[in-house]
Amino acid sequence: MPHPQLLRDMALFVEVARRKSFSQAAAALGMPISSLSRRITMFESMVGLRLLDRTTRKLALTSYGEAYLTQVSRLVDEAQRTFDDMMAVAKGPSGFLKLAAPPDFWVLRHLSGVITEFSALHEHIHVHVDLKPAPIDLVGDNYDLAVAIEEPRETSLIVRKVAEVENGIFGSPAYLAERGTPVSPIDLEDHQVILPMQGTSATWTLKRGEESVAITVGGPLSCNSLSLARRFAVAGQGLTRANVINVDNDLSTGRLQRVLPDWNLPSTPVYFVTTSRLLPAKARSFIDFATKRLAAVLANASGDTRRGGARAGRSAERVALSP
After folding, report:
1. What is the 3-state secondary structure (H, E, C) of 23-40?
2. What pLDDT is recorded for position 89?
3. What local confidence, expressed as pLDDT, does residue 119 receive?
4. At what angle do helices 4-19 and 63-91 cross, to 10 degrees?
């Protein structure tokens, strides 16, 4: 039978190795840095191999440490999951669930409702949400999972696609009255387009049934914020590409109008991202619940916006054309 301290030291090593930081690991574990460092040193002495290279600026795994981390990570994760499952059987999923999500309007409006419903069903889970732009350091910032609209580049992360958000092209009635409303994708090349990224031009691919058209668009304004691009569009500075559920209020009030509604831009995927497939019960419960609810909520919101946007667009057009 393994010594109990050996199993604990294995778990401590995994925490430090994943975070590559004694201070972050100590904070997550709720123990002094000095105690954690001493335990890892004693563990290395017992093993007889140096697992970590420590300098004043960084901490790195040795080749032995890399190999050992691969071997013991699954054991530690399975032990934690087994414990969580036992606790879940006894009193239901519980604990502190830390989520990261993008600061987009649809998150504030729709994901907040999903989290509220989940919390009402799981009184023993405390949910904390951080609104943070990508990229997100799940391990370093101790997140259980992240909501993302861009697939992470790190191949070690586990990515689950849960929904898609429809995109469209929008402009203010004043801008369209002055510059004209595009009737085909090629017309976009003659318009000012506000790009939500750095650059003076971009290529958009629009589809209608079997048709596909690639168009180069550009304009004098760009920014790194979808919300700011929307504000520029409302102010009449040009057309912008946006998630339809981010502009539903603008459509219903006539501040924006959808153009080329029969042509589709690629949808924005929504992902749940975790560091492991072996998740504690609190995280599994949230993912199972939110996957079903969020997909339905976003699909309904996109459908409502398309129908409402068409009505608002026709109303705004009448206002713009009236004497």
Report:
1. HHHHHHHCCCHHHHHHHH
2. 60
3. 92
4. 110
Mean pLDDT, rounded, of the chain: 83
For 78-109, write each residue's pLDDT tens digit.
777 777 667 666 566 788 999 999 887 777 77
Domain identity same for 259 and 187:
yes
Domain match, 183 and 201 both: yes
Distance CA 219, CA 285 (A): 46
For residue range 13-26, what is the model confidence (pLDDT) as tens digits? Answer: 888 888 888 888 88
Peptide bond into 261 cis (omega under 30): no
pLDDT > 60? residue 309: no
10: number of Cβ within 10 Å: 19
Q: Are 171 and 253 found together in one domain?
A: yes
| Domain at 106, CATH number | 3.40.190.10
Contact indicator for 259, 179 with CB cutoff of 8 Å: no
- Contact of 245 with 105, CB cutoff 8 Å: yes
Amino acid letter for position 261: P
Q: Are residues 143 and 277 in the same domain?
A: yes
Residue whose structure tokens are 């999923």: 93
Residue type, 309: G
Q: What is the DSSP letter of 263?
A: S
Alpha-carbon gap, residue 178 to 175, rounded angstroms: 5
Give the structural domain span for 189. Answer: 167-266
The Cα-based distances of 173 to 64, 166, 302, 314 in angstroms read 64, 22, 21, 10
The C-alpha atoms of residue 44 and residue 120 are separated, in whole angstroms, by: 46
Sign of CA dihedral 180, 186, 192, 195: positive
In this structure, which amino acid lies at residue 43?
F
pTM, to two decimals: 0.63
Q: Give the amino acid at 228.
A: L
Average pLDDT over residues 27-42: 86
What region, left, alpha or beta, does residue 238 occupy, with left being phi > 0 and alpha being psi -120 to 50 degrees? Answer: left
189 vs 89 pLDDT, higher one: 189
